[in-house]
């Protein structure tokens, strides 16, 4: 008999969605969503990114990312500049206030991570990171299957 | 420097949400959502469950579960009966059509799982199951923290 609550997709989605929901609730007071936080954290690590890079990292559609950056510009957290040698590409950076908020929320995210993996051995955490990347990559196979079913 | 894309919350949410989104899209043609599928799969394993059991397994609020069961009753997939010795509790079961759909989708879910863990050793899959349960349980700590912040 199939046991739903022991299946990897169920366990993965349950833990992942709950983790995201908890952190989303934590950053609500900053008027930020989870993808917005990811934009700030990603720009803190690597300034001057393009829309397409940020869309990939934060796992949102390019059109959604474009609107999201508009909101973050309005809120004074990021700037958007055309590159001098490429009219079609914009470079996105944190403002001073954006850096301040990013640092504050990264500190909070590190606390969430610390609690979530508190009971795990260091080797297990490394293993988990590897396994989550492996599974994410294999989901490409399922996505291709779906696309060929729709054709 | 903090690396967002190596953090466990990021990797966990990214893989979990993508897994859920892919399977949700797969079952759209049956007019079912992911929590509805979970209800069917859970009743296939354990018939005669209460609303509260199903709400816990499928990770939705009790009020949402009550509405969802209403929809599944209307669609002819489950039945809802009051227990003779307890007027306030209902027992939920699959109809014959509900069993047919559950079996079909469980087969599909098993395929998704098989693909997702295709590259992993059996011991790693066991390990992952353990780690995902551990993390999910530790998220209770973060939830309690949030509740005390709100008080």
UniProtKB/TrEMBL annotation, chains A, B:
<dbReference type="InterPro" id="IPR000835">
    <property type="entry name" value="HTH_MarR-typ"/>
</dbReference>
<keyword id="KW-0805">Transcription regulation</keyword>
<keyword id="KW-0804">Transcription</keyword>
<keyword id="KW-0238">DNA-binding</keyword>
<dbReference type="GO" id="GO:0003700">
    <property type="term" value="F:DNA-binding transcription factor activity"/>
</dbReference>
<protein>
    <submittedName>
        <fullName>DNA-binding MarR family transcriptional regulator</fullName>
    </submittedName>
</protein>
<feature type="domain" description="HTH marR-type">
    <location>
        <begin position="5"/>
        <end position="137"/>
    </location>
</feature>
<dbReference type="Pfam" id="PF01047">
    <property type="entry name" value="MarR"/>
</dbReference>
<dbReference type="InterPro" id="IPR036388">
    <property type="entry name" value="WH-like_DNA-bd_sf"/>
</dbReference>
<dbReference type="InterPro" id="IPR036390">
    <property type="entry name" value="WH_DNA-bd_sf"/>
</dbReference>
<dbReference type="GO" id="GO:0003677">
    <property type="term" value="F:DNA binding"/>
</dbReference>
């Amino acid at each position: 008999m199939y046991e739903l609550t022991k299946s990897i997709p169920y366990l993965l989605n349950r833990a992942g969605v709950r983790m995201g929901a908890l952190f989303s609730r934590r950053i609500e007071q900053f008027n930020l969503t989870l993808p917005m936080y990811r934009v700030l954290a990603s720009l803190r690590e690597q300034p001057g990114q393009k829309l397409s890079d940020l869309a990939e990292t934060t796992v949102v559609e390019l059109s959604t990312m474009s609107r999201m950056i508009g909101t973050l510009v309005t809120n004074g957290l990021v700037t958007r500049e055309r590159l001098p040698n490429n009219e079609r590409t914009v470079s996105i950076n944190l403002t001073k206030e954006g850096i301040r908020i990013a640092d504050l929320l990264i500190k909070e995210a590190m606390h969430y991570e610390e609690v979530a993996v508190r009971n795990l051995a260091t080797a297990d955490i490394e293993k988990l990171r590897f396994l989550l990347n492996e599974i994410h990559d294999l989901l490409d196979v399922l996505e291709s299957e779906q696309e060929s079913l729709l054709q």
